[in-house]
Amino acid sequence: MYEDLKRVLQESEHIVFFGGAGVSTESNIPDFRSQSGIYSKKTYPYPAEVMISHDFFVTHPKEFYDFYFSEMVYENAQPNPAHIALAKLEEMGKLDAIVTQNIDGLHQKAGSKHVLELHGSIHRNRCSGCHRFYTLEEMKENRKEGIPVCPHCGKILKPEVVLYGEALDNAVVEESIRCIAQADTLIVGGTSLVVYPAAGLLQYFKGKHLILINKDMTSMDHKADIIIHDPIGEVLKEVVLD
């Protein structure tokens, strides 16, 4: 399978990568749905899905940020071979775009330029009052009793991540659809394909090769040309970097 994948990458001219939490687990960022994932934690008074919802952010900002900074923000994480291999494919002129469900910014840290972040980023934050922009570091510096507030107007700061109950950014979705529709090869990696509407974007792929790299089976396995159930960092390291 690895040789088949290497051959497809060599032949392809317009690759798009669609990735999820499994891309960053090799950077020691936990995923959501595995046994050791964020959703399995029992140390909080509410389920994780509730604590990262828009309603919870509004009604329980202190508890929201306790959870957010403890479980969602990994600012010291470094890109793993998957991120590095994808940046190299882009540099080679083969990869047109990365469509990611992750919010960690590791694709950009690895050097990728065209990254479409469906669920936003921990590195972009805005004041809910005056709409000033803040970096992650600035947001952490302006906490009062654990809640980040704007030093200019005093309103609460909000990360530009898509919480439960919020819609995806239309511009990002439309650009993702355009890239996927124009791709000759779509690599889907590190995602269980159960999170919608993000997973629904795969329906726009009309290209030649669909490749799935994920530890577990997905609902799209039956449509794939190549299926590899190994850690994605190991796979891409071998076929791109070695």
TrEMBL record:
Record-level GO cellular component terms: cytoplasm
State the top-level EC class.
Answer: transferase
Q: How is the cofactor bound?
A: Binds 1 zinc ion per subunit.
Assigned EC number: 2.3.1.286
Binding-site positions, NAD(+): A21, T25, F32, R33, Q101, I103, D104, H119, T191, S192, N214, I232
| Membrane-crossing residue ranges in chain numbering | none
Family, according to the entry, reads as follows: Belongs to the sirtuin family. Class U subfamily.
Q: Which reaction does it catalyse?
A: N(6)-acetyl-L-lysyl-[protein] + NAD(+) + H2O = 2''-O-acetyl-ADP-D-ribose + nicotinamide + L-lysyl-[protein]
Residue ranges constituting the Deacetylase sirtuin-type domain according to the UniProt record: 1-242
InterPro entries, alphabetized: DHS-like_NAD/FAD-binding_dom, NAD-dep_sirtuin_deacylases, Sirtuin, Sirtuin_cat_small_dom_sf, Sirtuin_class_U, Ssirtuin_cat_dom
The record, for Pfam families, names:
SIR2 (PF02146)
Can you name the source organism? Amedibacterium intestinale
Q: Where is the active site?
A: H119 (proton acceptor)
Q: Which GO terms describe its molecular function?
A: histone deacetylase activity, NAD-dependent; NAD+ binding; zinc ion binding
Keyword annotations from UniProtKB, A to Z? Cytoplasm, Metal-binding, NAD, Transferase, Zinc
* Residues noted as binding nicotinamide in the record, renumbered to the chain: F32, I103, D104
Q: Where is the signal peptide?
A: none
- Protein name according to UniProt: NAD-dependent protein deacetylase
Record's keyword annotation contains Transferase: yes
The UniProt function text for this chain reads: NAD-dependent protein deacetylase which modulates the activities of several enzymes which are inactive in their acetylated form.
